[in-house]
Design brief:
The chain is an alpha/beta fold and about 280 residues long. The chain has one domain: Ribokinase (UDP-N-acetylmuramoyl-L-alanine:D-glutamate ligase). Helices cover about 45% and strands about 15% of the residues. Helix 1 packs across helix 9.
Length: about 280
């Protein structure tokens, strides 16, 4: 069932979340995915948040309570990665911090796939994934190929709603048309750029921005704000870029320049509710 009247209210909440992030500058702990760390850190800084990226088992859990939110990204796992991430989650839960699970490349991977299912039992505020990862995490055959999805976001809609209902987490699925759901309410965002999949770390960066916003807004608003912020900035960047190499600096500039009005103006956003 379409909820046309709800979109303006949600956009107003997103505008407040963007402003709140810039005012609070939340320290966001992203302890994994080393190859993408520079882009993730620069995206957080461009938006107004602050990155912390300690990933050793000896230090990362001890530093987690000093952050405002935690991103758990399975993109690159060191030998002590599972133990480090479990300890960081335990520290976040003890402090009452929101944490985001990004189950990157689960499916065929023999370590990260069972790890993702295990971590899911620890109550993430949000799950941010592509379509294949979402279907896998919901108990289906996602068919992912490494970090790439082989399924469309529309294929994962039912799985995302089911996963949200089972876990209590807001589930954000990225793709050509992004989807955010809490199990009953679903937002679809029709913004983005075909250059995003050509740059390593854009998905990790969206997850980090989602975590930063979870420090200043409730999970559904955080995921929707992050998605609008990132995809609308990507559109602006693509208009100026010659290709993926020049896209990244334009993306950082666009993330930095986007304000609450630009976030919401002419937003292509659809809200639906599942009928009982």
């Amino acid at each position: 069932m379409s909820e046309t009247g709800e979109a303006p209210r949600l956009l107003a909440e997103c505008a407040r979340a963007l402003s709140a992030l810039r005012q609070a500058a939340p320290l966001t702990h992203c302890p994994s995915a080393s190859p993408t760390m520079p882009l993730v850190a620069n995206v957080l800084l461009a938006c107004g948040a602050r990155p912390m990226m300690t990933h050793s088992e000896a230090e990362a859990p001890a530093l987690t309570p000093h952050a405002a939110a935690l991103l758990v990204n399975l993109g690159v796992l060191a030998a002590d990665g599972p133990q480090t991430l479990r300890a960081c989650i335990a520290a976040a839960r003890e402090k009452g911090l929101p944490w985001v699970l990004d189950p990157a490349a689960i499916g065929a991977a023999p370590v990260r796939t069972p790890l993702a299912f295990s971590l899911l039992q620890n109550g993430p505020a949000l799950v941010r994934a592509n379509a294949s990862e979402t279907i896998t995490l919901a108990g289906g055959a996602g068919g992912g190929s490494g970090p790439d999805t082989t399924r469309e976001v529309a294929d994962a809609a039912a799985a995302a709603r089911r996963l949200a209902k089972l876990t209590g987490a807001v589930v954000a699925v990225s793709g050509k048309q992004d989807l955010i759901t809490d199990g009953s309410r679903t937002a679809r965002v029709a913004h983005g750029s075909e250059l995003l999949p050509l740059v390593t770390g854009t998905g990790c960066s969206l997850g980090a921005l989602t975590a930063a916003l979870a420090a200043v807004a409730e999970p559904f608003t955080a995921a929707l704000t992050a998605t609008l912020w990132f995809t609308r900035a990507a559109e602006r960047a693509q208009a100026l870029a010659a290709g993926p190499g020049t896209f990244v600096p334009h993306l950082l500039d666009a993330l930095h320049a986007l304000d609450a009005d630009g976030l919401c103006r002419n937003a292509r956003l659809e809200i639906t509710r599942e009928e009982a």
